[in-house]
UniProtKB/TrEMBL annotation:
This is Iron transporter FeoB. Residues 3-165 form the FeoB-type G domain. SUPFAM superfamilies: P-loop containing nucleoside triphosphate hydrolases (SSF52540). It comes from Paenibacillus odorifer. It holds the Pfam family FeoB_Cyto. The lineage of its organism: Bacteria, Bacillati, Bacillota, Bacilli, Bacillales. It comes from the Bacteria. PANTHER family: FE(2+) TRANSPORTER FEOB, FERROUS IRON TRANSPORT PROTEIN B.
Length: 243
């Protein structure tokens, strides 16, 4: 029986941990992320003929470097490269929650968007067009209520499709203004040349343009290499048009 890894990502208070607990039950344990005080939870669940290692990432509003939680979530998705990143959104606050989903999709297309609290949304008269959102994002989108155990099998079916590769995503690619896109285009080949093609070069280029030195620190740690330049140096050498 093959085992796949599923990372649970989401804003705080979206019911992410409720879903995680529902699926893993007592088959879970907690620990700390390496080198951080941030707590991590891992568990296991089965669906059809597959077993899954579930990793509950810290609840975050973004994957930038604003906190240890955000860095831990970001680093796991980039460096551990889970088979599926399950992005849990609050159906009553979709607009705000989709920000994190879009950031995940910039890193990986191996994702499923899970819109939780669908029962609460219905009470508020909110109607969500899942097909339209799925088509726009380019990944499976499923509505559930973790608390009331609604839609769980349908969700796991989509997780299985992505994990096994029977669904291949063409995730939404966000276009930035001309200046930023020019910077990304110039920096991406340098990123690939330096760290290879294993990591999401376009997203890393974007973060470097933002001056994200903490991402470079993580890259150095995971590559066991200390000769990566600082973000400012990379930008200075490679992107003259941006500045």
């Amino acid at each position: 029986m093959s085992q796949f890894t599923v990372a649970f990502a989401g804003n705080p208070n979206t019911g992410k941990s409720t879903l995680f607990n529902l699926l893993t039950g007592m088959r879970q344990h907690t620990g700390n992320w390496a080198g951080k005080t941030v707590i991590t939870a891992e568990g296991e669940f089965k669906h059809n003929n597959h077993s899954y290692l579930a990793v509950d990432l810290p609840g975050t509003y973004s994957l930038y470097s604003n906190s240890a939680d955000e860095e831990a979530a970001r680093d796991y998705i980039i460096f551990e490269q889970p088979d599926v990143t399950l992005v849990v959104l609050d159906a009553t606050s979709l607009e705000r929650n989709l920000n994190l989903a879009l950031q995940v999709l910039e890193i990986t297309g191996r994702a499923v968007v899970c819109i939780n609290l669908i029962d609460e949304a219905r009470k508020l008269g909110i109607d969500i067009n899942l097909k339209s959102i799925s088509k726009r994002l380019g990944v499976p989108v499923v509505a559930i209520s973790a608390r009331n155990k609604i839609g769980i099998d349908a969700l796991l079916d989509q997780v299985e499709r992505v994990a096994t590769g029977s669904f291949t995503a063409q995730p939404l690619r966000i276009s930035y203004n001309e200046e930023i896109e020019r910077g990304i285009a110039e920096l991406t080949p340098l990123v690939e040349q330096t760290i290879g093609t294993k990591y999401p070069a376009r997203w890393i280029a974007l973060r470097l343009l933002d001056g994200d030195d903490s991402l470079l620190t993580s890259l150095k740690e995971h590559m066991k290499s200390k000769d990566l330049p600082e973000a400012k140096e990379v930008i200075g050498h490679g992107v003259t048009a941006y500045h």
